[in-house]
Amino acid sequence: MKDDIILFVYGLLLPGEKGFESLKLAAHVRRLGPERVAGRLYHLGDYPALVPGGAGIVRGEALAFSGPELLDTLDAYELYDPENPDKSEYCRVRVTLLDSGRSAWTYAYNRPVTNRPVIAAGSWHVPV
Questions:
Q1: Which long-range contacts link 75-83 to residues 24+ away (Cβ below 8 Å)?
Q2: With 116 labelled, which of 34, 42, 43, 51 sits at a CA distance of 20 to 30 A?
Q3: 93-116 as b/e, with b when 16 or more CB fall inside 10 Å?
Q4: What is the per-residue pLDDT across 47-102, written as a single tens digit (0 to 9) for each?
């Protein structure tokens, strides 16, 4: 438990969403509960984009797991290539969870968000 990897999820990797189900994450992670991070959430159509930092709040959930090999699976799902981050759609970055104060990984959008609608509620489960 001490060496767990903590991941903040806010979109399709949330429990009950398509990514969580298709990657069979329920068998590999422990749900730590609701969390929030500083940032903005944008609507990209079928999925959201997190831009961390700033004054906004994004709501999601913290997950924990012990096997670092799961990060490779998650990186591939989020189209993150650690060898070529500039070409990646998302980058895996560290954020501070506002409720627990823990440090966690999350996937930050790595493209411009110009003309993309902001999800003002900060939650993927709330309609735009």
A1: 77/13, 77/19, 77/23, 78/107, 80/107, 80/110
A2: 34
A3: bebebeeeebebbbbbbbeeeeeb
A4: 999 999 988 999 999 999 998 899 999 999 999 999 999 999 999 999 999 999 99
Q: What is the C-alpha to C-alpha distance for residues 7 and 105, in angstroms, rounded to an integer?
A: 5
Q: Residue 56 and residue 39: Cα distance in Å, rounded?
A: 5
Percentages of the chain per state (helix, strand, coil), in multiples of 5: 15, 40, 45
The one-letter code for the residue type at 98 is L
What are the residue ranges spanned by the domains of the chain? 5-109
Run of H or E including 30: strand 30-43
As a whole number, the mean pLDDT across the chain is 93
Angle at 11 between CA 7 and CA 17, to 5 degrees: 100
